[in-house]
Amino acid sequence: MDSFFQLEILVNVMTAAFLGGIIGWEREASHISAGLRTHMLIAASAATIVSLGFVLIGQYETLLGDAVRGDPVKLFEAIVVGVGFIGGGIIFRDKDNDHVRNLTTAASILVTAGIGIAVALHQFYFATGLTVLVFVINHVLYQVEKKYIR
Predict the structure, then answer these.
(1) CA distances for 50 relative to 55, 75, 112, angstroms
(2) Measured between alpha carbons, how far is residue 24 from residues 3, 28, 42, 49, 109 in Å?
(3) What is the Cα–Cα distance from 27 to 65, expressed in whole angstroms?
(4) Which of 80, 92, 112, 119 is the residue whose CA sits 20 to 30 A from 125?
């Protein structure tokens, strides 16, 4: 793997971390436990796993030809399982009022992994648009909900 390609992967991972950081910043500003660093690391991890998975598949196909078949969907499955484990760890129910807490943050973590995957697949416009959408859902709609519904 040449240096330029490695640099491209690194830039993609950094881009994913930046976009995840936007969502994490909003969560951090809302005083949620899974904030800036967590979201940055989730997005960067997803981009890293997808990027290196494609590198691995490419290297084995070069060496072994048709004897190796890579299934990129398995990478997505692994990411979703890992992120689901993390998300499940932050969701809890209050004993006093039976209220579920941090469900939105768990969903934000899952979609942040999707942003990392999108960046690794060079879907930059989609990843950026999805980041904006999640920010609007988490911040703007929360303000509307707080003012008019609660």
Answers:
(1) 9, 6, 14
(2) 31, 6, 10, 20, 9
(3) 46
(4) 80
Count: domains in the chain:
1
Q: Would the CA dihedral through 118, 132, 79, 18 be positive or negative?
A: positive
**Structural domain range at position 16:** 3-148
Q: Using the 8-state DSSP alphabet, how is residue 34 labeled?
A: S
The pLDDT value given to residue 1: 62
3-class secondary structure, 100: strand
- In one-letter notation, the amino acid at residue 7 is L
* pLDDT for 31 beyond 90: no
How many of the other CB atoms lie within 10 Å of CB of 55?
Answer: 14
Predicted TM-score of the model (pTM): 0.89
